[in-house]
Design the sequence.
């Protein structure tokens, strides 16, 4: 009986690196959401001003996604990721200098354009280091860093504020990126250049036959826009990412304003920790389930499609989160189910890019779709700011949140249906 070749596990070390980068990415962007009630009382930043600050971030984040996605395909993940983390860490710390809405707007813009590199770089890293049957799981693991970041922030930020100040919260969390950079520089390299990787693991990584002889030339953006698969990803991200932005930036406010009853900056951390703990489970499970379907003989295309349908359906109960008579924790459980289903959906929709496109185009296509999600987030921020401001002035802010939860509950089914109609069959893109 032939001896079994040892594959090795260094690729999971790489997965851990991008997991921690994503965690830091989300800690840095979540801080302002945690501080929203404090900024309103200390700096007179109301719903409209807050929505404008969030919109600046999302506008520049959209720009950053498409520009940095292209840049990373050109210069590679090691240098591109390092540059991005350096700039977003500086921007995160710079928030401490802000004296009002214009100052926050400036630093949010710089944070947005540099943080836009995270997902294009991370998805490209997964494509470089994992075969297709493991990509959704690897994506689910690193994507769970978004949830861990959102868990750490509501625990750490209030404690920092109590001990020091809100300015210290931005400085301390922003400095985490510089610590990550040390490990990235030491431990990251593409598989063929990484001396710590065994030959068996490189063979395992390159086991997808269709990717063996891939050329190294750049792919023009306009050429990528000709493919239906690019637009499917664009539409899916554009319709569903905005809902995650709403959870990230407005759920702390919902807890404080609607479910207040004593909840303040120091006490609404527990519901947020519960919500984002559940999303960590959703992200990893969402990646695992489609991988399981593939191992059972289903094509990657169908495995992603049916997994996404399941999670789209699981989001819908959030429409009852502000229904009359529902308790605070009942509503929190519905939000946790929807948010965890979003992350499971996200683990699969991200993987559709590396399933359909060669590695040399993955970061660019991810950036294009991510831009759609950020622009959609811009729209949801404007909508949330206008709706909540209107109903808050009328003394019925809970009605405003009810409307937003209904929007959240419908988005994924609509997105799945549009994606299915637009691309009902599997087709792998061949770039000439």
Sequence:
């Amino acid at each position: 009986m032939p001896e079994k070749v040892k594959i090795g596990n260094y690729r999971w070390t790489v997965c851990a690196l991008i997991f921690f980068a994503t965690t830091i990415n989300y800690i840095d962007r979540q801080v302002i959401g945690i501080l929203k009630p404090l900024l309103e009382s200390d700096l007179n930043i109301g719903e409209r001003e807050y929505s404008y600050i969030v919109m600046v971030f999302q506008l520049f984040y959209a720009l950053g996604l498409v520009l940095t996605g292209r840049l990373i395909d050109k210069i590679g993940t090691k240098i591109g990721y390092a540059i991005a983390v350096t700039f977003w860490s500086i921007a995160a710390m710079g928030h401490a200098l802000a004296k009002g809405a214009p100052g926050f707007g400036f630093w949010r813009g710089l944070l947005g354009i540099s943080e836009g590199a995270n997902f294009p770089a991370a998805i490209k890293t997964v494509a470089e280091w994992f075969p297709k049957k493991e990509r959704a799981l690897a994506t689910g693991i690193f994507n769970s860093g978004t949830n861990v970041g959102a868990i750490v922030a509501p625990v750490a930020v209030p404690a920092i504020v109590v001990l020091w100040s809100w300015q210290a919260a931005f400085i301390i969390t922003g400095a985490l990126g510089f610590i990550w950079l040390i490990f990235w520089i030491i431990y990251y390299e593409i598989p063929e250049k990484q001396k710590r990787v065994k030959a068996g693991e490189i063979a395992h990584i390159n086991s997808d036959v269709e990717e063996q002889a891939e050329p190294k030339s750049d792919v023009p953006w306009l050429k990528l826009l000709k493919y239906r698969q690019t637009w499917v990803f664009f539409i899916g991200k554009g319709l569903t990412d905005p809902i995650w932005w709403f959870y990230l930036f407005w759920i702390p406010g919902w807890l404080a304003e609607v479910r207040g009853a004593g909840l303040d900056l120091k006490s609404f951390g527990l519901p947020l920790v519960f919500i984002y703990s559940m999303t960590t489970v959703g992200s990893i499970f969402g990646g695992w389930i489609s991988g399981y379907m593939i191992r059972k003989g289903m094509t990657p295309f169908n495995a992603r499609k049916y997994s996404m349908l399941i999670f789209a359906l699981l989001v819908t109960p959030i429409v009852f989160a502000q229904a009359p008579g529902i308790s605070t924790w009942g509503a929190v459980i519905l939000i946790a189910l929807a948010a965890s289903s979003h992350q499971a959906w996200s683990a699969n929709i991200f993987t559709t890019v590396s399933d359909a496109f060669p590695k040399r185009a993955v970061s660019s296509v991810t950036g294009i779709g991510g831009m759609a999600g950020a622009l959609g987030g811009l729209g949801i921020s404007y909508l949330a700011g206008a709706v909540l401001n209107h109903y808050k002035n009328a003394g019925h802010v809970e009605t405003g949140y009810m409307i937003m939860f209904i929007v959240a509950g419908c988005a994924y089914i609509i997105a799945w249906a549009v994606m299915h109609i637009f691309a009902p069959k599997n087709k792998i893109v061949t770039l000439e």
Observations:
- The chain has a mean pLDDT of 83.
- The two ends are 43 Å apart (CA to CA).
- The longest helix spans residues 359-393.
